[in-house]
Amino acid sequence: MGHGGGGALSAELMEQIFTPAYGNATLSGLTDSAVLELGGARLAFSTDSYVVRPLFFPGGCLGDLAVNGTVNDLAMSGARPACLSAAFVLEEGVELSVVERIARSMGAAAEAAGVTIVTGDTKVVESGHGDGVYVTTAGVGLVPDGVDIRPQRARPGDAVVVSGPIGLHGVAIMSVREGLEFGVEVASDTAPLGDLVAAMLAVTPDIHVLRDPTRGGLGASLNEIARASGTGVRLRERAIPVPDAVANACGFLGLDPLYVANEGRLVAFVPPSRAEEVLAAMRAHPQGTGATLIGECVAEHPGMVVVATGLGGTRVLDLPLGEQLPRIC
């Protein structure tokens, strides 16, 4: 299970098995989506499978998660998402009303994100050989001229910005799955981020890095960026927007909210001279009202992420071994 969690074991799987097997320069970049030059256009292409349990949770379900996840992977390369495919694996015995509800949520999410689902596939497996419904989506989008967003472009001095409160999706899944109550309902943050990214690029096309911190949370994403760019990252703990409900749930369960999954947040590395303008544009957008400057990229401790704690100390935020809570997306 750890190999599917987006942490060190997932990286090991890529480095030791998949990258050597498929070996090409595009794949070796290990970005959220591949950027390809085809017919004079720059296309972003991404694919992802969704195996969330339970299928329905506060704030969303498997259907909108499958659309938003792929739309956001495309957006993290600066692309304007255009169209998706959708492949269903259904377990024998699943109620057609469940499949219909998921399909309708996908259609609504696609309309909200400004994309169309143009092709797909359906397979059925025997009872006991699946878990109700699995969905795989792939998507393409167009990357504007002059945009070059990838983890290798992080530079010392870059402002590190997160688009809003973190940890909501993972805690929402956990509350339903484990039957836990935290005093208030915690809803997933699943949402499309393409329009938010477009608003940021309207300020400056020179955004260096974008990443949506899904599996492994903010901690895993920042470690991946630091290692890919050979730079360090320094965070200010008190600046990181962790909602009280998330902090309380994580404290109760012994989890670190920086490793809890998100599905409607992004982290950006922005040149310091444009950081305030980008922050203002983000806060003016519905998906970025909680945008916050949480740290900076530094030349010290290359490949490492450190956190300045509220007590005046410093701790290392390492790449997690696997996901604290599996099957969250």
From TrEMBL:
CDD domains listed in its UniProt record: HypE (cd02197)
Domain PurM-like N-terminal stretches: 32-143
Domain of life, source organism: Bacteria
One Pfam family, short name: AIRS_C
InterPro entries xrefs: HypE (IPR011854), PurM-like_C_dom (IPR010918), PurM-like_C_sf (IPR036676), PurM-like_N (IPR016188), PurM-like_N_sf (IPR036921)
Transmembrane segments: none
Domain PurM-like C-terminal: 155-301
Family under the similarity heading: Belongs to the HypE family.
NCBIfam families xref list: hypE (TIGR02124)
Protein name (database record): Hydrogenase expression/formation protein HypE
Source species of the chain: Streptomyces tibetensis
Lineage: Bacteria, Bacillati, Actinomycetota, Actinomycetes, Kitasatosporales
Gene name, Swiss-Prot/TrEMBL: hypE
